Amino acid sequence: MKLNFFLIISTGLILANFHRAYGQNDSTNLEPQQEVWPELNLYYQINDNFRLYSIVSGTKVDQSSYSEGAFSIFVDYFGLKAPISKLNFVGREERFRFRLRVGYLYSTTPPTDDDKIRSSTFRIQTANTFSITPKFRLYYKGKLDMVIADHEFNARYVPRLIVERDFRTEYLTFSAYTYVERYLDFQGRGLNRTRLAAGANLRVSRSIDFETYFLHQFGNGDNVPTVKAIGSRLKIYFSRVKKKTTTQSAKIAK
Questions:
Q1: Hey, what CATH class is 2-253 in?
Q2: Domain locations in the chain as residue ranges
Q3: Which domain of life is it from (predicted)?
């Protein structure tokens, strides 16, 4: 308990310093926005090291007619296998310490919009897992987005620091997490932004998870509004090969 308390306090200080060093003061001349971000995530495990990942998502701005839809397809590669003692019973990726994700994302506003916006994003993302205890871990994720929107090219890098802990009760198995991320725009157009989020991932069945979270985006000048968003993800997992549950893994899950 003392170790977990120390880890929570230490991580909180790290996140606070990260925001203080790189974030904004939530100062903007734009109207604050309240948004809803629903997602459907589909995973197809090809083998131990490769996986296909697809997202169908949307954005709805409260008290506005603005909406947006997106579709993406990615290939994941997993490497640096972790010791089995570090496996947790909620996360489905913690057998590996490293993940490389490469793919494409397309987003568009509805055809009825007068000012229709379309964008194509080519993404490269890396993720590193640091197991502190069997149920407590840190992630560092960094993604490079190369975006073409309205015939203009721009690029951004988004680092994200996540702390997550697993919980298990008689009826529920879930993980709770919080993260901070920073959007770094390479074109210097005043689009840098900082986001804080907290959420939970619920294990529904062997092949289904449900995640919900709250996110706050800090406003920045005349280009980045303050955003409060509620997001949800329905995650469905498919596998080419049936996984066998070993006795040792079963003991860890208890």
A1: mainly beta
A2: 2-253
A3: Bacteria
